[in-house]
Please model this.
Amino acid sequence: MALVSERAIFSESEWLEIANELSLPPRQAEVIKLLFVGHSDKQIALELQISVPTVRTHLSRLFSRFDVQDRTELVLYVFRYFREGCQEYS
Model:
């Protein structure tokens, strides 16, 4: 997972805060984290040692939960959520 942390957009503490505030189950938080570094479904499956259909199930549930259509919209949703939180504290 060292490669992921080198390309991470958010620090580990920021990820924990985002996951908690969005009430993300741990596995869904991991899936989103890997999306942020550009992983494909297959790469996410390999990294998390789960099947590709399981990755797609997590993504489908996330899309429904946040009312987005695809992985790009999901990433943008999470990023906007984080940025809005940052603006509240500045």
Remarks:
- Helices lie at 2-6, 12-21, 26-36, 41-48, 52-65, 71-89.
- The radius of gyration is 13 Å.
- The CA atoms of residues 17 and 82 lie 9 Å apart.
- The chain has a mean pLDDT of 87.
